[in-house]
């Protein structure tokens, strides 16, 4: 069982930046796939950015060039740096994890989930 806890959400103006962090109860080097997903009101949860234990990354087209996902083995976290935020980035952001690294390509095969953190982009 892997427990995940997200932090770093909040209110930011369009064009601003936020950094999300996901702390794991298991050593992240042992977890094949980790990453970030989001769910906007009335919509399904979708992949935002994921990273494998081998540092392969996968991004949704809508965030490429603006968001960066990374693993920090010292802090045992997976972080999401979000720049040039837009109102359409507003959502609850969830951290997901799975021992199968192929899960970085999937919207719905992560086994473990955090409770989510709200990101609101508004002026």
Description:
It is a single chain. 0% of the residues lie in helices and 47% in strands. The protein contains no helices and eleven strands. Strands 2, 4, 5, 6, 9, 10 and 11 form a seven-stranded mixed β-sheet that branches. A hairpin with a 4-residue loop joins strand 7 (67-72) and strand 8 (77-82). It is globular and about 40 Å long. The mean pLDDT is 96.
Features:
single chain, 123 residues, seven-stranded mixed sheet, four-stranded antiparallel sheet, 47% strand, globular
SSE map:
Blueprint: E1 4-7, E2 10-12, E3 18-24, E4 33-39, E5 46-52, E6 57-59, E7 67-72, E8 77-82, E9 91-98, E10 112-113, E11 117-121
Parallel strand pairs: 2-11
Antiparallel strand pairs: 1-3, 3-8, 4-5, 4-9, 5-6, 7-8, 9-10, 9-11
Whole-number average pLDDT?
96
What is the overall shape? globular
Uncertain regions spanning at least 5 consecutive residues:
none
Work out the strand percent: over 45%
Helix content: under 10%
Number of strands: 11
């Amino acid at each position: 069982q892997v427990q995940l806890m997200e932090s770093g959400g909040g209110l930011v103006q369009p064009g601003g930046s936020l950094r999300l962090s996901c702390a794991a109860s298991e050593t992240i080097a042992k977890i094949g796939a980790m990453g970030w997903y989001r769910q906007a009101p009335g919509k399904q949860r979708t992949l935002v950015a994921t990273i494998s234990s081998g540092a392969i990354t996968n991004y949704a087209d809508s965030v490429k060039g603006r968001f960066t996902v990374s693993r920090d083995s010292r802090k045992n976290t997976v972080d999401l740096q979000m720049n040039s935020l837009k109102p359409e980035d507003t959502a609850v952001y969830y951290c997901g994890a799975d021992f199968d690294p192929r899960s970085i390509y999937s919207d719905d095969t992560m086994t473990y989930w955090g409770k989510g953190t709200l990101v609101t982009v508004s002026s």
